[in-house]
UniProtKB/TrEMBL annotation:
The lineage of its organism: Bacteria, Pseudomonadati, Pseudomonadota, Gammaproteobacteria, Pseudomonadales. CDD domains: REC_OmpR. The modification 4-aspartylphosphate is found at residue 58. Pfam families: Response_reg. Residues 9-125 form the Response regulatory domain. This is Response regulator. One of its GO terms (biological process) is phosphorelay signal transduction system. PROSITE patterns: RESPONSE_REGULATORY (PS50110).
Length: 135
């Protein structure tokens, strides 16, 4: 697959509108295509349609939490290689360990910075050159 043929597709799953908007703004400013979802169920439907290159998922969400969402993504043959980055306001060892168990590739603590988001993408999606739009 030629990853340079289109924009990097990034999915952000969070029940917080503020977090979704912040991440979306930061990522769109560097040329990413951003798909947002309000919870795991919303995300699973959109993943099939959009095939994101990387997924950021909040841990604490209603209905289907981030751990369950990550496990479902990683247990699907079509998406198991898609990097999943867990987002949490908690920075506990237990949370990180549980994230690893369900297959997450990295753990970011909220509030995250622009550089943390971009560094996670650079680390897990090789071949994409993210160049910030200078304003």
């Amino acid at each position: 697959m030629d990853t340079h043929s289109s924009a990097l597709k990034v999915m952000v799953i969070d029940d917080s509108k503020t977090i979704r908007r912040t991440a979306e703004t930061l990522l769109k400013n560097v040329g990413c295509e951003v798909i947002t979802a309000i919870d795991g169920f919303d995300a699973l439907a959109k993943i099939v349609d959009h095939h994101p290159h990387i997924i950021f998922v909040d841990i604490m969400m209603p209905r289907l939490d981030g751990y369950q969402t990550c496990a479902l993504i990683k247990n699907n043959r079509a998406f198991k290689m898609t990097p999943v980055i867990m987002l949490s306001s908690k920075d506990g060892l237990f949370d990180k360990a549980k994230g690893r168990i369900v297959g997450s590739d990295q753990f970011l603590t909220k509030p995250f910075s622009r550089d943390e988001l971009l560094n996670a993408i650079k680390a897990h999606v090789p071949g994409f050159d993210i160049v910030p739009n200078v304003q």
